Amino acid sequence: MKIAILSRNANLYSTKRLIEAGKKRGHDIVVMDHLKCVLLIESGQPTIHYRGEKVTGIDAIIPRIGASVTMYGAAVVRQFEQMKVFSSVESQALVRSRDKLRSLQLLAKAGVGMPKTAFASTPNNINDLLKLVGDAPVVIKLLEGTQGIGVILAETHNSAKSVIEAFMDVNVEILVQEFIAEAKGADIRAFIVDGQIVGAMRRQGAAGDFRSNLHRGGKATLVQLSPEEKATAIKSVKKLGLAIAGVDMLQSKRGPLVMEVNSSPGLEGIEGATGVDIAGKIIEYVERNEFHTHM
């Protein structure tokens, strides 16, 4: 089988592991930088050109699309889908999961627990906005932020107000979220492949940092999920239509609260913490589905 990994950097841990796992199972693996793909949109004949040549013979793709290039990356995935190539992440699900506001609305509608979140375009009264989420301390997040960048903990009402005003002044869209103190700067990531939890880790923020992202110096350890945490993670990915995802949850007094569902989760932290060959499980998932697509 010929599998293309859509990745901007073949040397990233996740990309390298997928190449390794694919080759180990006898597949021909190619890495394509999605930003270098040219899409020819023609009635009945969608094609992709890469480095001056028409792309042919690809059986399946594994998209590893960065948040900053979601729209173009999703367009490339959509073009492959129109060419009847199986994608491990559907283009529609990718777009849905990257829109933080939309994904939270969908999860809330499905009854998934989450921190109380407020969003306003130009709130006339920031005091009211803060009151809605239970007032300071609050977490202020950029709608476009990723890997813990653009996430601020405002510990007092006045500091929250000034941060929100500063963002509003430069027309930056933000979410204001209740701060879950009992999580103590840690969260849980459940890694799901094809509706099954294949690994879970607890990520603890670096000393003095409430953000648990491993890119920000957090530490990952193996964790056993409670039945409620498992059910919440599976329900979340199902609702967003993702077959492969990392579900980030906070442990709170009122049960697991979903912060985010990541459609391109990194493999390094989760493989290191669990010792599970998650790259191999992703390749197995692609094999099963590519086979059904061509039956």
State the helical fraction. Answer: 25-40%
**SSE class:** alpha+beta
- Annotation field: number of helices: 9
Strand order of the largest sheet: 14-13-12-15-16
Secondary-structure element string: EHEEEEEHEHHEHEEHEEEEHEEHH
Number-wise, the strands total 16
N/C terminus separation: 15 Å
Strand count, sense and closure of the main sheet?
A: 5 strands, antiparallel
Any idea of the CATH topology of the largest domain?
A: Rossmann fold
Uncertain segments of ≥5 residues (pLDDT<50)? none
Q: What Rg do the Cα atoms give?
A: 20 Å
- Per the principal axes of the C-alpha atoms, what is the gross shape? globular
What does the average pLDDT come to? 90
The CATH first-level class of the largest domain comes to Alpha Beta
CATH architecture descriptor text of the largest domain: 3-Layer(aba) Sandwich
Description:
This protein is α+β, with helices and mostly antiparallel strands and 295 residues long. The chain folds into three domains: 2-89, Rossmann fold (3-Layer(aba) Sandwich), CATH 3.40.50; 117-179, 2-Layer Sandwich (Dna Ligase, domain 1); 183-263, D-amino Acid Aminotransferase, Chain A, domain 1 (2-Layer Sandwich). The protein is built from nine helices and 16 strands. The protein has helices spanning 13-24, 70-82, 91-98, 100-109, 126-132, 157-169, 227-240, 268-274, 278-293; strands spanning 2-6, 28-32, 37-40, 47-50, 53-54, 60-63, 86-87, 117-119, 138-142, 151-154, 174-178, 186-193, 196-204, 219-222, 244-252, 255-262. The strands form four sheets. The chain has a five-stranded antiparallel beta sheet with strand order 14-13-12-15-16, sandwiched between helices. Strand 9 (138-142) and strand 10 form a beta hairpin. Helix 1 (13-24) packs across helix 9 (278-293) and helix 2 packs antiparallel against helix 3 (91-98). The protein is globular. 39% of the residues are buried. The mean pLDDT is 90.
